[in-house]
Amino acid sequence: MTVVWTLSEASGHCHVSKRTLMRRIDQLTKHGAYRDDAGVWRVTPNALRAAGFTPGKPSAPDTPRDTASASADNAELSQLRAELEQWRRRAEIAEAIAAERERVIETQAASLRMLTASSTAEPARKWWNKLLPA
């Protein structure tokens, strides 16, 4: 009788997650994995071996990362961090300029209010007008 496992059982035997098995389900189906009438995946040990898994032992990682791509990623990350810091500084400077301009506008508005308030008042009478009745 052929041994057949569910994905959960197969993941336990291979010491990998069910998600790892699902990522290789195409390879597993080529070598004998199938869905039964209830929709449950059934996997044989031979299908697992053919897909690169080792039942009874931990399996190797899916794709080992090479150090060249990792160092390229780190270089790009460093560049992006430096660019982010530059944009933060620019934003701080822009906010400071905007705040200064807001203060200038408020000061000019206050000055304009004082000027318009004094021009609407009745003009002062000249001294000789004080001698004559109005």
Structure description:
The chain is mainly alpha-helical and 134 residues long. The protein has 6 helices and 3 strands. The mean pLDDT is 85. The protein is rod-shaped. A hairpin with a 5-residue loop joins strand 2 and strand 3 (41-43). The protein is 63% helix and 5% strand.
Secondary-structure blueprint of this entry?
Layout: E1 5-6, H1 7-14, H2 18-23, H3 25-30, E2 34-35, E3 41-43, H4 45-50, H5 67-120, H6 127-131
Antiparallel strand pairs: 1-3, 2-3
Please outline what is shown here:
The chain is mostly helical. It has helices at 7-14, 18-23, 25-30, 45-50, 67-120, 127-131; strands spanning 5-6, 34-35, 41-43. Helices cover 63% and strands 5% of the residues.
**From the alpha-carbon coordinates, what is the Rg to the nearest angstrom?**
40 Å
In N-to-C order, the SSE pattern is EHHHEEHHH
Report the count of strand segments: 3
What is the topology, as strand order, of the major beta sheet? 1-3-2
Figure out the total of helices.
6
Task: Quickly list its features.
mainly alpha; rod-shaped; 134 residues; 3 strands
